[in-house]
Design goal:
Blueprint lengths: L14 H9 L5 H9 L3 H16 L2 E5 L1 E5 L27 H9 L8 E5 L8 H14 L4 E4 L2 H11 L3 H11 L1 E4 L9 H7 L6 H13 L3 E8 L5 H18 L2 E8 L15 H14 L5 E2 L3 H4 L1 H7 L6 E4 L20 H10 L3 E5 L9
Parallel strand pairs: 1-9, 1-10, 2-3, 3-4, 4-5, 5-6, 6-7, 7-8
Helix pairs in contact: 2-10, 3-11, 4-5, 6-7, 6-9, 9-10
Amino acid sequence: MTNLGNITLKDKQLEQVREKLEAGVRLDANDGICLYESNDILAIGRMADSIRRARHGNKAFFVYNQHVNYTNVCINHCRFCAFSRSAGADGAFTLTPEDVKKRLLERIDEPVTEIHMVGGINPELPFQYYLDLLRAISSVRPNVVIKAFTAVEIEHLSRIAGLPLPDTIERLKEAGLAMVPGGGAEILSRRMHDRLFPKKIDGDRWLDVMEKIHTAGLTSNATMLYGHLETIRERVDHLIQLRELQDRTQGFSAFIPLAFHSANTALSDLPSTTAHDDLKTIAIARLILDNFDHIKAYWVMIGEKLAQVALSFGADDLDGTIIEEKITHMAGAKSARGLTRKQIRRMIESAGFEPVERDSFYRLPDN
């Protein structure tokens, strides 16, 4: 049970939500909609902060990680994407395993503990290429955690390998895959799938692939892309579906709300998300996702300053140093392309929290 009685509610419709939280009763979809429709952002934030502190106290986590995008050639052509290119188009690229090794060697003196690697669905690349990528990383950094290939990519790899998903995942694990990022879910809605990313696997298949990933012994993150054409109901349904899968597998490590950036996309007329919506979404995720240990404030998408505030609205993790992020910046993000350990520690401390450097599995370096 959580004591939330000292929180003043300007919106009395939140009383039922508070009562449920205090009694340890799981919130349902109607509660999620009530939270989204309320403008009592401070009360929502304080409830989320109370639950966050009950789990993690004053700690705020981060990891020393480096991003690698091996190709931006992609046949899915999602309407919200500014990163992908058709083969042969200006700006299209595909790295060889040797290219990836060179990029890692450029920062070999830095204490990177996680490599985050994703790319487009490039039909010209054989399955062996992906195994070679993983082995190339391991050869340069044998002790790093390789977090690579979204559920969308792993579905594609299964098809080109001609293997069932479990066998595909085992081959990737043998080559060095240790964790899976949470991208590709976008918004778990058939309406949004058909309208924005019809060539990509749909929400049901994404959940199925993730379940098989978890069953194979790999943990993953989960995401939600919000702030485009989705409804509040679709956001809440997305969270509920993630929670239901987590009930079955306990395979999700963290949830990451991804604020949509529209520049250079087919949806460039859409405005940016507001700080109010960003903070509310993080807080509501903390309240609904009661079986997720960690909620991230992804500073790349919401900016460094708002990410600091988000630590008081339910978030307990800022992700990491995120060296050389490309995907969001190609869609107009104004945040830094990477942070030093000193900078991210200062962000956390100046927000009133204790910085804790972790590895990909939330273990501390000395454990």
